[in-house]
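Example 3.
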Amino acid sequence: MDSKNEFEKQLKFLLKTPQEISLSRSHWLKIQSGFENAEKKKRKRRLSYWAMAASILLLIGIFFFYPVTSNKSEAEILAQYGLTEYNFPSLVQQKLIALPKTKVAKSQAEYLDILKNQLYFLDKQYANYLEYINLNGYQEFIGIQIQNYYEVKIELLDKIQKEIKKLKSRNNENSNNINEIEWNI
Amino acid sequence: MKTQIISMRSNGIFKVSLSILFCLYTIIAQADIVDHIFDKTLEVNEKVTVKTNGMEIPRLDFSGWVSSSKVKGAYTLKTREQLFLKVHKGLNINTWNQSQIRHVVKVTVRAETPQIERSFLNDLEHALTLNATENIELDNMLGIKAIMMKNGWLRGIDNTVTTANGNEYKLDYLEISAELFIPENSNLEIVDAHFTDFLIGKLNGILTVELEGGSVKGTYIQEVNAWLNSSEVRLSEVDLLDVSAHQSKININKVNDCTIGKLPFEYDAINFGALNHGVGSPLVPIVNIGSNKEHNSTINKYKFDDVNRLKIASSANDKIDVINLNDAELLKTNFTDLTISTLNGSMTGAMSFGELDIFTLNTIWNNDFELESFNGTLRIYSRNIKDLELNIITNKVKPEVMLHGKSPKEHQQLLNNVGENLIHIGDDYILLENESNNRSTNKSIYRKGTKKQNGSVMKIFCNNCDLTIR
């Protein structure tokens, strides 16, 4: 009997308007915004949990699956193979700077391009060595190849310098040479 | 007090027994390493063709920490300070007077249990099959197809080796070295070899080699067909050498017939042939470590003591040094420097750019010398030129024809000879400035209708080139 009365009481309360349950409008808005804030906080908390979980997963992924060997700088690779003392990169840089832009006959430029392509070929070889190191670690024989690469490259740059010098002196003698174009590395 | 002594004693006993156990464990762990030598011999025809690879690392797949121990002459891989893989890069190919092939491969292996080791070795045993008599293929890695290494932070080491039949084995250590014995008269094909050093015995057959980043050393080989990239060849004697190479060093004492590079139509034919051979052919590189399939010769250093015939089919920026050369034919050379200490026979062809130095022309000169140079530098040091015909295209280039005398008297004698029969220049007019001192002279030379002596004519067609004859 008591429970029936209690139920009727609650039903009546629920069917009442805000005015009827004697709440002011401001009170009502406060309650409403309180609910909304709580909802927002919940959402934010949920988002931060997801973000944390994702970053933890990402970190785990990096630790477990990403190969640790990564691209190293030229200096680091030379140091690894004990080739620092030869100053190869700075020698190459000096030789490259020393190579001037020059004007040669079109037919001569086509020939000089053979040497330019050999420079590209050597650089491609070097890129392949780096790839090999990434895949196989620092094998001793790759160090020998890298040393050889620098030595050949320096010789090739010297050769280009020499051939340009020769061409310039010949072309100066044959001053009436026609159809000259600019050539550089 | 008594109980304390007992506990101290028991503590000591515990420590001693622990160290004994540790020693035992170390001994057992050491004993786990299994050395196995696969040694197979097969009767074959004397002219058998043996095809082998280098000491090639198969497909490698890893994640985590991998390093190498930089052991000379070996490929090594370490996972977290523990050496896992060691493959010896030197391969001795011995030859003998027997109609037999012997393949010896030493494998050292360590796994968690002896059963795994035995099973792994059994798989390798099956891969080593010698059953043909005319064409034999030998795999020095015994069919190992792939190696997978996985390790990382808070994670165990997982090294898996896949054998030819697809079985996977978890191994802790693997070391491989090989040696080969083949008949002296057989043909040898080294295919798809990378970073391997071959030492080959005397071979009365054909060696076909495609090699990147390795070396071939040996004594006598009858015929060598080589495609090299960043490699080295050092041999005593070769009858027939045909080489296409890039950034390599070739050093051979004696060659009868030497061809450097191939003409485009020649290597087109080869590539067409390669299509028929398919992958694995010596002409189709699988791993392209800077691979360039062009069959020409670029940026190499050649050194020969004696060459009978030298044909340069296609060469760009090579350095070729020959001490004694009989005949040379230059078909396509760009920027190549050719240095000949003594030229005994003929020289024909053309060279663009690059330098030619001939230090001595043999006195029994009786062959043709007909050379065209475009933008090149020719220097010929000889007193044995009987007749010279120059054709200069760019008339402002001044060829220097200089005579040297060891003493002022000898020099004067040479000067007296000039104009009699020493030098003949074609119909072009060349103006040379006279310049003389005690020991040398630049002589302006122009004589029409000079009576030629017996012997060959040296003809030089010089287009914008530097010419020095001394």
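The longest helix of chain A spans residues 25-65. The longest strand of chain A covers residues 102-105.
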